[in-house]
Specification:
Layout (H helix, E strand, L loop, with lengths): L16 H38 L9 E5 L6 H8 L12 H9 L4 E8 L4 E8 L2 E5 L6 E4 L4 E4 L9 E4 L16 H13 L4 E5 L4 E4 L4 E3 L6 H14 L5 E5 L7 E4 L5
Parallel strand pairs: 1-3, 4-7, 7-8, 10-11
Antiparallel strand pairs: 2-3, 4-5, 5-6, 8-9, 9-10, 11-12
Helix pairs in contact: 2-3, 4-5
C-alpha cells in the first residue's frame, strides 16, 4: 500500500479561561510598564536637552557684574581684571580664571565670585590693610604689614599712614619691600592700631619715629612693642611735653624724656 502517513498529534490540553485571561493581563501589564519606563526616560532626556539648550539662550546670560568690598581699589579696575563680558552664557564664564586675575591686583587680599541664575555675577573683594607709606618719585605709595606695595596713597589716607624713611628700593605696586623693612613695618602697624595719627614718619635706622606734635620717639627695635606703646601712650596723655626733644623707649619700663636745650 502506497501513500504518506503522518503521526497523529496529541490534542492540546484545554486551558482554563481564567488562566488564559490572567496570562494576557500579565503580558499587558509588562507592556504598559515598559512603555512607562520609555516615557520616563524620554521625559528626562527631553528636560535635560531643554535645560541644556536654555543655558545657552539669552535667558541665562550674564546681565550684570557687581563688585563689593572695595574702599581703595576702584571697582572699574576689578571689573577690567575679571574680564567678564555681559551677554556671555553663564555656564561659559570661567570663574576661577576671573578670580585669579582679580586676586593678582596689588590691593586684593582675597576675592570670592558668585554666579546667580538671575544673570548676576558678584565679586566680593577683601582688600589688604595699609599700615604705612613709602615716598617715591611718583608720590607716596601705601604698603601693608607684609611690605606689599599697594598703590598710590589717597588724600584721606595720607595723615593716618606713617611714612617709612630710608627705604632705598621701592618696587612697583604688587611687589614687596626689602626684608630689612620688617621691623619698621611692625612698629608702623602697632602705632597705627594703638595710637593712630600720633606719628608722621619712621626712620628705618634705629626705628626713630617723628611725632605729629613735635619731637621724636626712639624704639630701638621691634621687640616688646606692647610695653613700649603703653609707655608712650601714658607719656603722651599724662606728661607735659613742652619743648619735647625725644622719648627713649628702648627700655619700656623706664622711658626717658629729654627736652630741647634752652627750653624754659
Amino acid at each position: 500500500m502506497t501513500g504518506t502517513s503522518t503521526l497523529d498529534r496529541p490534542p492540546e490540553a484545554a486551558i482554563d479561561p481564567r488562566i488564559r485571561a490572567r496570562r494576557i493581563e500579565v503580558r499587558r501589564h509588562e507592556g504598559r510598564r515598559r512603555l512607562s519606563r520609555l516615557l520616563d526616560v524620554g521625559l528626562v532626556l527631553g528636560v535635560a536637552l531643554a535645560f541644556g539648550a536654555a543655558l545657552f539662550t539669552p535667558l541665562l546670560d550674564v546681565d550684570e557684574v557687581t563688585v563689593v568690598g572695595t574702599a581703595h581699589l576702584p571697582a572699574e579696575d576689578v571689573l577690567a581684571a575679571a574680564g567678564i563680558e555681559l551677554g556671555t552664557p553663564l555656564v561659559s564664564v570661567d570663574l576661577a580664571g576671573a578670580g585669579a586675575r582679580v586676586a593678582a591686583l596689588p590691593w586684593v587680599a582675597e576675592v570670592t565670585l558668585h554666579r546667580g541664575v538671575d544673570g548676576v555675577i558678584s565679586l566680593d573683594v577683601t582688600e589688604r590693610a595699609p599700615v604705612a607709606s613709602v615716598p617715591t618719585a611718583d608720590g607716596p605709595m601705601a604698603v601693608d604689614g607684609q611690605g606689599r606695595v599697594l598703590g598710590a596713597v589717597g588724600g584721606a589716607q595720607a595723615p593716618a599712614l606713617v611714612s617709612l624713611e630710608g627705604v632705598r628700593r621701592v618696587p612697583e605696586p604688587g611687589g614687596y619691600l626689602p626684608a630689612a623693612t620688617a621691623d619698621a613695618l611692625a612698629v608702623a602697624a602697632a602705632l597705627g592700631e594703638a595710637l593712630p595719627g600720633s606719628a608722621t614718619a619712621l626712620e628705618l635706622d634705629g626705628l626713630v619715629a617723628t611725632l605729629a606734635q613735635g619731637g621724636e620717639v626712639r624704639f630701638g627695635d621691634a621687640s616688646r612693642l606692647d610695653g613700649k606703646l603703653r609707655s608712650l601712650s601714658t607719656m603722651l596723655d599724662q606728661v607735659d611735653l613742652t619743648c619735647l626733644a625725644a622719648i627713649d623707649l628702648r627700655l619700656p619700663g623706664s622711658p626717658v624724656l629729654t627736652r630741647e636745650e634752652g627750653c624754659s
